[in-house]
Design a protein that fits this description.
Radius of gyration: 28 Å
Oligomer: single chain
Number of strands: 33
Largest sheet: 7 strands, mixed
Distance between the termini: 71 Å
Strand order of the largest sheet: 8-7-3-1-11-12-13
Helix content: 25-40%
Strand content: 15-25%
Number of helices: 31
Length: 923
């Protein structure tokens, strides 16, 4: 009873927060609850029944195993519970989504009691989350002549688990709610500083947008009980930024529908919209939940009588409203005509929201069920030796005779599964692809673990080359929240088959390296496909897609992902970098020059940026590919010269070997296998058997951008433009300004050098600058704090070996100590250098932040409101993003430098240089 009483005490604590009892996942607690159900005189029996029926998590949780076993006892008559009849027990099993429930159903279906077997078979016909162990049992029974097994397999071959579901309604009535003007960041829907609560869905739901917004949504629901609330980004894109399943979960919790009456706080089918559509990563997550994402196009650029864009005094396009979606507007979505209506008035075609595949996701309650359903149908048809009946919409295969392939088209064709043999596919084709590398990060990892449990997965797919669970987002502060969550996560993922940053057994030193840097190192083939639980999964080898925790779980469980082949935008370079410029400035200038060329249209959005860097190693090139998340691209591919790629692979091998030497490899020797693959790839390049990946000369691109290095005359800064009169233009990453814009007068309150955007070269630049400043001024004196967080321990070790860490220690007022990690976030900063533990630190904003209202100059990736710095009363916090030398000099001066001061400070320093390749990188 101890566990039960602890649960009752927890329930009382949650009541004070306005929360319901936390869903049960533990076997010990549910075992006590079952004992109380069996005792008809127990005073807790009624509550125990409710907890058992309505508040137990499904899938492969320990509690699910206990629940399934008890339901089996009831069905077999071994236990009698008046409130749970055998028929109701079958219904409860049907909602448990695989794992132990499937094992029980198979036991019953293949058992001796024919009546029970038939009932179990009827339930099994509705299930899709079956794995090899389950289908092997069916296969064996089928081959032994079991008629029930044959009946189930014939049902699977016809995909009756899908065809017998209710059809998608022809009309869906919605009432609009404007979540904000401009781009809506996932940080608004699921704030980073609340990451610790993401696996507690009800608790985490309370942080969505604001309490006022939540009250307004509830008021709309009360006024329109027959309609669903559609969350909208007015004049912006919905769901930009991080790839947060928790963001969609929160939207679904407030505006969607319950997935099951027996699974608490798991909602599906949210409806979201944006004037400029839905961020690609966020749209994938909407698909996971069977939701609808709509590109509203309710504002357009105003044209004059000659068809030219009308611009304001700042040169920005003037927008005019096509139709209103103001909060409280009632609209009708017609899924048959694929139009959006206001009353009888047709507003816009929304066909892209209702492709055959998306309609299947909506009907099935999410994309997972479709993915698993197709695999199950294929298994059954193969076993019955019949052609697969055409139930699901055939994958769209687009092929243009005589047209070459972009780099991403080549990678997708190589990794495609189940496509027409010999057919070459181009952009727009729907493809199921094999995934080579998978990454899970620590603030979404618990949700990934929940998703794996809910889809009844217990071990990583054998076709995945390597997978890594990071500890970088919780590296800064080892507080009670981290101590409660992270060890549990690391054990789960380690048992599942991932390489983990922290050792559940405590045998190797914790490695809190930034996840993207590790994934970049363990990607050892530029033909690889990488899926990672973070929007900055943007490797400079292969093609990488940032994904929600559910898509990561699916990749881990199946080794596959499904998506259309994206269009590509080709980026090349001309001219010559000035000696005093850093490659980070080239990255920002690329965005600025693209927007200028295309009249403010972001041609990168939702597409793959194929960047022909050629001469930069993977470490340095990652600065570009990483920033493509801020460019709103779906992904990026770095095209390298042969010798550069070989150098990058050798660096990767060395770093993987360090991980092995630390004791991080597992019994399957995954890390050693990656080194072997790297050796094989290097040999192929050197022999000429298979040169570095390059697109075909006659490949077709959506657009081409040529970046003119000669035009980059001064450092370029991404500015959140927090006081722009047009709210929709704030916090966009699209405002790129030259250093001179600030006139050497803008006060800087704090500097940050760190995040995935920096590499070892940046740390060396920092050390060189400090030595320069001391030589020029006689001492190093900071007029603003400078926080430095190297991205990886490998970099720290390399800096120590090369003498640069000694330089940083000399000027530092604080240095991290792994033996005594911080247990609370820093709330005040002094004007000195802080050497923080490798990891995300301020960039993530979930553990530590700058003081409210600060102006921060940072090398990081995000400038969203409240991310790095929150607003203060009367002053907006702002995070300006720039190169390492600009950040360092800004903290020395306490303000933005002039261009003259900047040039003096970097004189003689080896900045990250880049010269365009001397040859065309194509076949």
């Amino acid at each position: 009873m101890n566990t039960y009483y602890e649960y009752i005490n927890e329930i009382e604590e949650r009541k004070s927060q306005g929360l319901h009892p936390k869903p049960i996942d533990g076997a010990e607690l549910l075992t006590e609850i079952i004992a109380q159900i069996k005792d008809e005189n127990n005073s807790h029996r009624e509550d125990s029944l409710n907890f058992f029926i309505y508040n137990t998590l499904p899938g492969t949780t320990p509690a699910a195993a206990v629940k399934a076993k008890f339901l089996k006892e009831i069905i077999l008559g071994q236990s009698v519970v008046q409130e749970i009849t055998p028929a109701f027990a079958f219904e409860l099993l049907s909602h448990m989504k695989g794992g132990p429930s499937i094992q029980v159903l198979l036991d019953l279906a293949l058992g001796d009691n024919i009546e029970i077997a038939k009932e179990a078979a009827n339930v099994l016909k509705t299930q899709v989350f079956l794995y090899d162990a389950d289908t092997d049992r069916l296969k064996e029974a089928f081959k032994n002549g079991n008629s029930i097994a044959k009946e189930i397999i014939e049902s699977y071959a016809q995909a009756e688990f899908f065809t017998k579901l209710p059809e998608v309604p022809e009309e869906i009535k919605v009432v609009t709610y404007i979540a904000g003007e401009g781009d809506i960041s996932t940080d608004l829907l699921s704030p980073g500083n609340q990451a610790h609560s993401r696996s507690d869905r009800e608790l985490h739901g309370k942080c969505m947008i604001s309490l006022q917004a939540q009250a307004e949504i509830k008021a709309l629901q009360a006024l329109h009980p027959d309609k669903q609330v559609m969350l909208i980004a007015e004049k912006g894109t919905m769901g930009v930024g991080s790839s947060r399943m928790s963001g969609v979960n929160n939207v679904a919790l407030w505006t969607g529908k319950p997935a099951s009456p027996y699974i608490p706080f798991v909602n599906i089918a949210p409806i979201v919209g944006g004037t400029n559509g839905i961020s690609p990563i966020f749209l994938t997550t909407v698909d996971v939940t069977g939701g609808i994402g709509i590109d509203l196009k309710n504002w357009v650029k105003k044209l004059d009588a000659n068809g030219n864009i009308v611009r304001d005094e700042n040169g920005e396009p003037v927008l005019e409203q096509v139709y209103s979606v103001a909060s409280g507007t009632v609209l009708t979505i017609n899924t048959k005509t694929k139009k959006l209506y206001k009353g009888d008035q047709e507003l816009i075609d929304i066909s892209r929201s209702f492709t055959p595949q998306k309609l299947e996701f909506i009907k099935a309650g999410g994309s997972y069920a479709v993915v698993f359903g197709k695999k199950l149908q294929t298994f059954a048809a193969k076993l019955l030796e019949i052609e697969i009946p055409l139930v699901y919409a055939p994958s769209k295969e687009i092929s243009h005779e005589g047209q070459g392939l972009t780099a991403v088209e080549k990678i997708f064709n190589k990794n495609a599964v189940g496509t027409t043999s010999g057919k070459v596919l181009h952009a727009g084709s729907d493809v199921r692809v094999q995934v080579n590398i998978v990454g899970s990060q620590d603030t979404t990892g618990l949700m990934t673990a929940q998703e794996l449990e809910s889809m009844a997965a217990t071990v990583i797919s054998p076709i995945v080359d390597g997978a890594y669970q990071s500890g970088c987002h919780t590296a800064s502060v080892w507080d009670k929240k981290a101590q409660a969550n992270i060890p549990k996560l690391m054990k789960f993922m380690n048992d599942f088959g991932l390489i983990t940053a922290r050792d559940p057994k405590g045998q190797y030193h914790s490695m809190t390296d930034v996840i993207h840097k590790v994934l970049n190192d363990i990607t050892v083939d530029e033909w690889a496909i990488i899926i990672g639980g973070d929007s900055h999964t943007r490797m400079s080898k292969g093609v990488a897609f940032g994904a929600d925790s559910g898509t990561v779980a699916l990749a881990l469980a199946t080794g596959e992902a499904s998506m259309p082949i994206p269009e590509s935008v080709k980026v090349t370079f001309k001219g010559e970098m000035k000696d005093y410029m850093d490659f980070r400035d080239v990255v920002h200038a690329t965005q600025a020059q693209m927007l200028q060329k295309f009249g403010g249209e972001n041609v990168f959005q939702g597409r793959v940026i194929e960047v022909h860097i050629g001469t930069l190693t993977a470490d340095q090139a990652f600065t570009f590919t990483d920033w493509t998340a801020e460019m709103k691209a779906k992904a990026s591919i770095c095209i390298s010269e042969d010798d550069t790629l070989i150098e990058s692979l050798e660096i990767a091998k060395g770093r993987i070997q360090i991980m092995i030497d630390k004791g991080m490899d597992n019994e399957k020797q995954v890390l050693q296998g990656l080194i072997n693959k790297a050796d094989k790839r290097i040999a192929e390049i050197k022999s000429g058997e298979k040169p570095a990946l390059a697109p075909d000369a006659n490949a077709k691109y959506y657009a081409e951008v040529v970046v003119d290095l000669d035009l980059i005359a001064e450092p370029m800064i991404a500015d959140p433009d927090v006081n722009n009169a047009d709210v929709s233009k704030r916090y966009t990453h699209d405002t790129i300004r030259p250093l001179s814009f600030y006139g050497g007068e803008k006060k800087v309150d704090l500097g940050f050098v760190g995040s995935c955007m920096v590499h070892k070269g940046d740390m060396k630049i920092l050390a060189q600058m400090l030595k320069n400043i001391e030589a020029q001024q006689g001492k190093v004196e900071f007029k603003a704090p400078l926080v430095v967080a190297p991205p990886t321990y490998n970099i720290v070790d390399e800096l120590k070996a090369e003498g640069d860490w000694d330089v940083l220690q000399k000027y530092a007022g604080f240095e991290f100590d792994d033996n005594a990690p911080k247990s609370a976030p820093r709330t005040e900063y002094e004007n000195m250098l802080y050497l923080e533990r490798p990891g995300c630190n301020l960039c993530m904003g979930n553990q530590e932040k700058a003081a409210k209202g600060d102006t921060v100059m940072a090398t990081s990736t995000r400038l969203f409101q409240g991310r790095v710095v929150e607003d203060a009363e009367g002053k907006k916090g702002e995070s300006l993003l720039s190169s390492t030398p600009v950040v360092v000099l800004s903290t020395i001066l306490g303000r933005t430098p002039t261009i003259a001061e900047y040039k003096t400070a970097v004189d003689g320093i080896s900045l990250t240089k880049f010269a365009p390749p001397h040859k065309l990188l194509m076949n």
